[in-house]
Amino acid sequence: MSVKSDEATDDEIKAYEKGIKADEMTRCYILASMANVLQHQHQSMTTAYDMFKSLKEILGEQNRPVKHTVMKARLTIKMVKETLVREHVFKMMSLLNELKILNAVIDMESKVEMVLQTLPDSFQQFCLNNNMNNMDLSLAKLLNEEQTAKSIIKQQDPPAALMVEKPSASTFKLKGEKKKKAS
User: Fold this and answer.
1) Residues 6 or more apart whose Cβ sits within 8 Å of residue 94
2) Which of 4, 17, 63, 178 has its CA 20 to 30 A from that of 118?
3) SS3 assignment, position 64
4) Tens of pLDDT along 40-75?
5) Is the pTM of this model over 0.70?
6) Cα–Cα distance, 93 to 74 (Å, whole number)
7) Structural Rg of the chain based on CA atoms
8) CA separation, residue 91 to residues 69, 73, 95 (Å)
9) Helices (H) and strands (E) in the chain, counts
10) Within 10 Å of residue 125's Cβ, how many Cβ atoms?
């Protein structure tokens, strides 16, 4: 299928024919990668763009349940105490990338906040410092900062904020027991 016109130059005609050939190749690749049912439905379409629009209509709505599942996983995840910070942040980055692929728009500040919310209580000071200092972190910088914080947290054995003296049994009076007078 070529278009020749008195107004078109030889270069324009060649570019047009090259575009037609590229579109035909693209249609072949699309058809070859489809299931038989979809092939039959799309083989009469004249352009790859028409195929793409049709596939988007057919498959486009499948993003919604997938996006919901990924978002639910993101909202319910919490870093387990024994997990390495690096593994946890990579897992969070993976979930956030899946959401991006599904066309969810999340700015960097919100992504960092989402990761901070999944950290255990031992990172409370780290999160507070991040919020108080309005640190402008990317996920990669956050990963490095969290690993540094984790090594500091590990060095505190046990953390000072968590040290509580265990009361002795004689400090408490059992119900129904009378106070004994010292003789």
Assistant:
1) none
2) 63
3) helix
4) 888 899 999 998 888 888 776 666 777 778 777 777
5) no
6) 10
7) 31
8) 15, 11, 6
9) 8, 0
10) 14
Distance CA 15, CA 1 (A): 13
Most distant CA pair in the chain: distance in Å? Answer: 124
- What does the block give as tokens for 43? 């083989």
Provide the residue-wise pLDDT of the chain in tens; the chain has 183 residues: 445 556 889 999 999 999 999 999 999 988 898 888 888 888 899 999 998 888 888 776 666 777 778 777 777 788 887 778 888 888 888 888 888 877 778 888 888 888 888 888 878 888 787 777 777 777 787 777 777 777 776 666 554 454 445 444 444 444 555 555 554
CB 112 within 8 A of CB 142: yes
Angle separating helix axes 85-101 and 108-117, nearest 10 degrees: 140
φ, ψ dihedrals at 77, nearest 5°? -75, 140
Q: What are the DSSP calls for 3-16, one per residue?
A: ---SS--HHHHHHH
Structure tokens at 130: 């991040």
